[in-house]
Write a structure and sequence with these properties.
By secondary structure, the chain is of the alpha/beta class. It is built from 5 helices and 5 strands, in the order E-H-E-H-E-H-E-H-E-H. The chain is globular and about 45 Å long.
Length: 155
Amino acid sequence: MKIAIFPGSFDPFTIGHYSVVTRALSFVDEVVIAIGVNDAKKTLFPLDKRIEIINKTFVHEPRIRVESYDSLTVDFAKEINATIILRGIRSIADFEYEKTVADANRRLSGIDTILLFTEPQHSFISSTVVRDILRYDKDVKCFLPPNVSIDDLKI
């Protein structure tokens, strides 16, 4: 069974993340969306809100589960028997960095990393951008995955 882990903080979960996860379902049996929990990192949404939004996005997809973790990604990947680590990239600059991380992960764990570009129209969309747009009360619908509304983001 091929299990892919897609690690990140996902604050909030964006259309770019959605495109990576849905494309991964074409070559794996299950995707674990792993939300990194780090007390030092400031987040807009509490963990339960982030999990709620992701679950709402994939409400009809039983091959996706959401879990939180506070260890190294490679350690958590081994813990859940992941065979692939997924990484979303938005630009060529991201690609160079993520390739370095993928090589390190492979050396540490033996688990391959697959780098997937987000869809071109979302290539520069990140959670930080959405966070800033929300802060200034701008329309963020085009950045959100299907089934998620602006009201879902209200805390």
